[in-house]
Amino acid sequence: xxxxxxxxxxxxxxxxxxxxxxxxxxxxxxxxxxxxxxxxxxxxxxxxxxxxxxxxxxxxxxxxxxxxxxxxxxxxxxxxxxxxxxxxxxxxxxxxxxxxxxxxxxxxxxxxxxxxxxxxxxxxxxxxxxxxxxxxxxxxxxxxxxxxxxxxxxxxxxxxxxxxxxxxxxxxxxxxxxxxxxxxxxxxxxxxxxxxxxxxxxxxxxxxxxxxxxxxxxxxxxxxxxxxxxxxxxxxxxxxxxxxxxxxxxxxxxxxxxxxxxxxxxxxxxxxxxxxxxxxxxxxxxxxxxxxxxxxxxxxxxxxxxxxxxxxxxxxxxxxxxxxxxxxxxxxxxxxxxxxxxxxxxxxxxxxxxxxxxxxxxxxxxxxxxxxxxxxxxx
Length: 379
Ligand SMILES: NC(=O)c1ccc[n+]([C@@H]2O[C@H](COP(=O)([O-])OP(=O)(O)OC[C@H]3O[C@@H](n4cnc5c(N)ncnc54)[C@H](O)[C@@H]3O)[C@@H](O)[C@H]2O)c1
What we know:
By secondary structure, this protein is an alpha/beta fold. It is 40% helix and 19% strand.
């Protein structure tokens, strides 16, 4: 099997590549180092030291065939897919920061344009080249927002004025980033409807963690962002606890979100690759559990106090985002379980690993201290 990973240099892309290599798959990858550059622009860097792409490839004995280029460039994507003819394309190569998309009109448009174009480029390349490629697209659980009803997997039955239909579940994403993903979702639904493309649309929760079994095996780390623009919440809490700073819970902390460990994210993507749809559009709500921010802060404090002998404080900052502080939340994740998903690594297993990894990068973390508190405001 040949798999093309777009965004192979990223947090998820690189460990996915390691897993696929070990599974005997021919791994092709593309990236334009967009995240490395943008993270540098906010004066940050990966909190765990990572190798360059060239170093990664040479340490892996050239088992990744790498192409440098921009996935929002249609010719680059068309030529890549024409030359490789992959069985599957995993599309991770998007601007992936909600805060970045909220900085200004420029960053909002950059996010919308690049993300929507990149997915369209893949759709058209696969359709025009008439190849039976499985498109695995990374969306976000944040596309749904926080509706006051249960969140199904993509679609639901609607009864309205004595009629009913099976319809796309409303998407109420709360940033331009999330809305770019919503647009991708609709574009993929239409592409499947008119051209029968094979699509797995992955609504992923927030990913946390620093290790997968292949990261252990090869000793090659993946990036780990903790700054206010690119860091995700749990990774940031762990970093703060190691630095001895109060955890920055936004608002009251009763916001609930879906989460999964990096190990589980890679496991799920592998399952999805092994279960291609038969010219269907399939949706996977890809998460393990949902937690409130207060619950997560409490767990991080518990582990950091015990493992690193700290007395971590939990602080509450004014919420820089516009989001409900208290809300109903009940999403389902049945489709992955149907193809064999069982939790691989729990929060309790991952937290000690993350704490130890970050503690051994403590000086590097301390140099990032002033890029953590939120400066990007939604209003
Ligand atoms: N990490 C999470 O918690 C999370 C949660 C939900 C969804 N996702 C989605 O999963 C995907 C991967 O996320 P990640 O955390 O690995 O992010 P990441 O930023 O670490 O990885 C994305 C990679 O794609 C590359 N890239 C971005 N735009 C590109 C372009 N136009 N051309 C070529 N390469 C480009 C970046 O340089 C980077 O290496 C993203 O689409 C993201 O929105 C991530």
